[in-house]
DNA sequence: TCAACTTTGTGCAAGCGTTCACAAGCGGTA
DNA sequence: TACCGCTTGTGAACGCTTGCACAAAGTTGA
């Protein structure tokens, strides 16, 4: 079973856990034209991929503001990273900058989109149309970024046929046919935790190979399926850890009566 | 400004970006009793903290099932990690296992809770009671894990006073007084992206030092504030990247007519 | 054309995090 | 008590990620 990644791995983490759990044994390929692109894509570190998505969002904003050129320093500032890291990240996808000038925003956007596979459409299915499922189905941020929500599923017969965010809910039992019909490539699990593994299994047998899981459970999937998880309780607990650590530090400083300079708990 | 961590960095996380951007200069503390606990807490890698939260969830399930003792191998399986990693993670918080036997589930639970700071209560405020905010306010998983939702805020006057999930929504202008009154320690941002930085600034001046951000923006905060972000579009794009990579590999293999054995795209 | 200046792309070293592998320690058994 | 089998805890090696620092490569202006 493949390990799943997410948040802090923050993360998160990712996240966060980042070993590319044997998606495939390295087949020595040696075709001519697309080979370098493939090799390159394969070589991009997971951490860099996550940041590329962030750069893409920032750059899209820049395009809308009419910015045509940007330096690594500026982009790094806007994305909240070190500029050396940014340049290294961009170097994984090729050399598209101009020394002395910076990067052409549109060129960069199109190359990042290419690397992230955003030139294809990725239809999304949401399973579990409860509180969270409703929010996801209504969320405009998915379709606008190339991830149209194409199907909704629930086990509750009262929901079947009811349109949410413009799409009628299908019964979970129809998952295989509907997913095939609408070419769903990403499944989102928003069911109660008890149902998550079963739903996951059904998604996998329906041919879905990418899963985003909101249920607080560790899903078991075959190696060829990619799972990412979003676990809000875990996020909260990481924040809690930092609160505790900071409180302990403060307590220690008070005990010592030292009052370490530079530490500002609340300025 | 502190960098913010989240997802995958995954693995996330990171999850992902994981450098402890100078929350404080290392003050050399040397008090006696609690010093080792503090030193230890400080030394736990972020990635390990995220996993400890997962172990805790799994262990809580075990307690309910009446399991009293568990080996690293079993727990690792249930948490989806390698058993060596699990043991190392647990070693960061101390030596509470019994060689030849395993770990006492309840002992482990209480120590992880202590390290994660879950012995204190962490009140949560949600800002932006729209689609997502409603789901979060109604989510039972927060209070049940020691994160009571104590306040809700929105800018929409029509929402003010309306109870959501049992708590009446307050106007964003009252954020400082209400947060102080209810001792809010974690702020959750679920507003549109345009409003996120302003909301973040208000949370920070209200004394909130931990922020969980759902808006797709990079927040700028002072060093002493801890930000974690949940960015669903980024998660989707990471999944998309893997689809693309896999498709490229498959294409390459087909071009070569090799058909690398062991690669199962869809079994 | 040339020099001064700006910014990219990257080799390299240091720092983390993961994994291996095994000694140390514990419980059970004869 | 002495032995055996099992499981923990961790030193050490490895590999990924980060950040520095600088040569290479471009622009601008004279
Ligand atoms: N609400 C939140 O803000 C939030 C936050 C974080 C995580 N989560 C997690 O997301 C999941 C959903 O949360 P929610 O608050 O929307 O719960 P919910 O109870 O409101 O909704 C769950 C939905 O799933 C459906 N369902 C149940 N079993 C199913 C099955 N086998 N197949 C298909 N559908 C099924 C139910 O009919 C219901 O409509 C939970 O696992 C929860 O822990 C929720
Ligand atoms: N809905 C989702 O499933 C989803 C998923 C991922 C990310 N997000 C992100 O979460 C955020 C919220 O999404 P949503 O779908 O709930 O949006 P929404 O429009 O339904 O809700 C936003 C709410 O924020 C309130 N608001 C606006 N400005 C405010 C301010 N200055 N102070 C306080 N409140 C303010 C609005 O009145 C509204 O109630 C967005 O940034 C979105 O990108 C949403």
Can you tell me about this structure?
- Two copies of one chain form a homodimer.
- Chain A is an alpha/beta fold and 267 residues long.
- Chain A folds into three domains: 35-115, Arc Repressor Mutant, subunit A, CATH 1.10.10; 123-230, Rossmann fold; 233-267.
- Chain A contains nine helices and eleven strands.
- Chain A has helices at residues 35-43, 46-64, 72-79, 83-93, 105-115, 131-138, 175-181, 193-205, 232-256, and strands spanning 5-6, 69-70, 97-98, 102-104, 123-127, 149-154, 163-164, 167-171, 184-189, 210-213, 226-229.
- The longest helix of chain A is centred in the C-terminal third of the chain and has 25 residues, at 232-256.
- Residues 7-35 and 254-267 of chain A have low confidence and may be disordered.
- Bound molecules: nicotinamide-adenine-dinucleotide (2 copies).
- One nicotinamide-adenine-dinucleotide (NAD) sits between chains B (127-133, 153-156, 172, 190-193, 195, 198-199, 214-216, 232) and A (135-136, 139, 141).
- Chain A binds a DNA duplex (30 and 30 nucleotides) through residues 17-19, 45, 47-48, 71-73, 82, 84-85, 87-88, 90-91, 95, 97-103.
